[in-house]
Amino acid sequence: MTESSNQFVMIGLPAAGKTSFLAALWYLVQHAQVERRLELKHFEGDMKYLNQIADLWVTFEVVPRTTTSTERTVSMVLKDTATNRTFTLTVPDLSGESFVSQLVARQLTVSYDKFLRASSGAILFVSPLDYRKPARINKAKPLIEEMGAATDKTDAQDNSSVTWDPAQTPTQVQLVELLQFIADRDYFKPPFPVALIISAWDQLEGENKTPAKWLSEELPLLSQFLESNHKLFDHTIYGVSAQGGDYKKADELTHIPPSERIVVVGAEVKNDHDLTEPLTWLMR
Amino acid sequence: MSTAPPGWSGSPASPASPANPASPATPLATTEPVAPANTPAIVEDVIDLPNGKELDDPAASRLQTAKPARLMVVAGPVGAGKTTLLNTLHDLFQEGKIGAYSFAWSKTLPAFERRCHFSRTASERTAQDTERTPFGDVRYLHVQVSGPELHPDPLDLLFTDVSGETFERARDSISECQQLMTFLRTADHFLLLIDCEKLIDLRKRNKIIHDAMALLRLCLDSGMLGNSCYVNVLWTKYDWIAAAGGTEHTSFLEKATKEFEIQFGSRVGRLSFTTVAARPEKGENLEFGHGIPELLKEWAINSPRHRDMNLTPGDEAGTRESETFLDRHFKAVQDAQ
Q1: Interface of B with A in 100-129 (CB under 8 A)
Q2: What are B178-229's pLDDT values in tens digits?
């Protein structure tokens, strides 16, 4: 049995599901309710933040998004049940705003850069409930005209349009840029593993698509980027429901063990409740 | 939107570092103490990232040195569709692969986004528009493309972003051309845009072709454009001709194509012709980005850097391409009849 550490960086724009993932993970590794590859070895250090978010998760409360003032690094001492190896998992819980700030200010904080340098992989979060697509006027025009919106506008309004804001560019453009930033660092060593997680997967159940298919249809630029750069970013794509369903219907979820609420979908998934699979994929 | 409960931003137990990772729940700013809530936030040291704007000459040169990036000169008068062509290339990749080709990288993504803004609903405009490129120094936009013929090395395309005014100012003087268009020296492809909307005007159309030929001749005669350069003549805003119907305009294009062949077929490395309707507005038959997949394939398959040097420039390759163009249009005319 060896002691080691694994650092991963969690990347995602605001409300992409990063903190909910951490909350569900902290509960899952502590309980033997479902088969999972990684389990908690023992408690260590300050667990206040993880306990707070996991408490909310297990009681069907919405886990608050991380803000720039609540960013922190969290660690868990875990055991790989397949190898008996014990290691410390360390991930920073950065706010989505921090990533937007990278795109707007075109700067990385030194602390993030240091963490990135020591990281051996990344988890990239995408929310299917909150992403911006590049809406072309001519494509949207028939719909706008049908709604009567376009005809109400005057020429004067047309000329005084909203100025361009880099914070409002399409989600796929922003995520590609964040990955390009990583690959441009002088210490970057390919292939850098990236587990892409499409969160709130339960909301897409009716669509009968694989996570990879959903990504290629909804965020095609990101999908092309990952395929084109598979030598730089070794990647796999998961659909994850960490919350496990709609909390407005929480009563329907109370009769199942909390860990069973978790759903993990993907081409390489062995256990569809095992939230540690993206982590073990990164460590393989 | 939720907010964090009180106390979540409290002081950590100990700073975390890669060497000492077992320090749960610590702020990421590892080297600085945590400020109490009522003190000003500590300003962290930062590292500058690439600004994502259009590349200037030195940056473009560095890219060409580091990678075999191909320089694509986008030429034509004001309003010919130069900016729209590049914006649409960016827009098409945002909607999926372009034919067999995938987006791989761009050093100028924010620049593309800013330029596309007025064609997006986020601008709150009701009609799409394109911002004119101002007169000034040349700038470059970068796109890297992967695809079946581009394995294992993707194709780096570096497009010039030059105002139409530059080409118009240079037209009357060899020395002006040499002074204003130094970027021509390393051009791999010369994209000559000819505005089909203007060709609809029967009185003016011969002047449009005359001006386009004069521009190409000027670039060659000044010695700025090498004779190994691949020239793509782009009939832009082709939706105007498609919507006009009949054979009047397509016959005119065929004649103009033949004259280009006679005049320049043997003077450049390759001469090809493509109809383009980047953002078609006339008629309803042409798709968004019409002609761009064909162009991308042209650039992917035919590289002046990999050219078989035994080929007579402008002979076999050029003729083959123009025949393809003519065949297509004869067929279109026949179909219409």
Answers
A1: 102-106, 109-110, 113-114, 116-128
A2: 989 999 999 999 999 999 999 999 999 999 999 999 999 999 999 999 999 9
Amino acid identity, position B31: T
ipTM beyond 0.90?
yes
Computed over every residue of chain B, the mean pLDDT equals 82
Contacts of B58 (CB under 8 A, 6+ apart): none
Q: pLDDT (tens digit, 9 = 90+) per residue, B50-96?
A: 999 999 999 999 988 887 899 999 999 999 999 999 999 999 999 99
For residues A109 and A26, the answer to whether their CB atoms sit within 8 Å is: no
Report residue B318 as tokens: 């050029």
Which of the residues B28, B53, B54, B143 would you substitute to probe the A interface, choosing the one with the greatest number of A C-beta atoms within 10 Å? B28
pLDDT score at A149: 55
Provide the shortest C-alpha distance from residue A47 to chain B (in Å): 6
Give the DSSP H or E segment for B191.
strand B189-195
Looking at the complex, report in whole angstroms how far the Cα of residue B42 sits from the nearest Cα belonging to chain A: 11
Inform me whether the C-beta atom of residue B6 falls under 8 Å from chain A C-beta atoms: no
Q: Which residue of B has its CA nearest to A90?
A: B21
The mean per-residue pLDDT over the stretch B98-110 comes to 98
Q: How many Å separate Cα A212 from the centre of its chain?
A: 15
Contact criterion met (CB below 8 Å) for B150 and B91:
no
Strand partners, A196: A124, A237
* Residue in A141, A181, A224 closest to B97 by CB: A224
Closest residue in B to A98 (Cα) is B28
> What are the b/e assignments for B299-311, b being 16+ CB within 10 Å?
bbebbbeeeeeee
Query: Two tokens at A37?
Result: 């590859």
The pTM is what? 0.87
Cα four-point dihedral sign B108, B110, B111, B117:
positive
- The token pair that represents A63 in the structure block: 């886990």
**Strand pairing category for B230-236 and B102-105:** unpaired
Q: DSSP assignment of B164-189, as one string?
A: HHHHHHHTT-HHHHHHH-GGGGG-SE
Q: Give which of B93, B184, B69, B79 is closest to A173, Cα–Cα.
A: B93
**CA proximity to B181, closest of B227, B140, B131, B222:** B222
What single-letter amino acid sits at A191? P
**Encoded tokens for A174:** 């922003």
Closest-CA residue to B98 (of B147, B153, B142, B63): B147
Q: Where are the beta strands (DSSP E) in A81-182?
A: 86-93, 107-109, 122-126
The per-residue pLDDT for B35 is 35
Nearest-CA residue of chain A relative to B91?
A134
* All residues at 6 or more sequence positions from A281 whose CB lies less than 8 Å from its CB, including other chains: A193, A195, A236, A268
Peptide bond into A92 cis (omega under 30): no
C-alpha–C-alpha distance, residues A89 and A73, integer Å: 10
User: Is residue A229 within 8 angstroms of chain B, CB to CB?
Assistant: yes
Residue A34: both structure tokens together: 């479902």
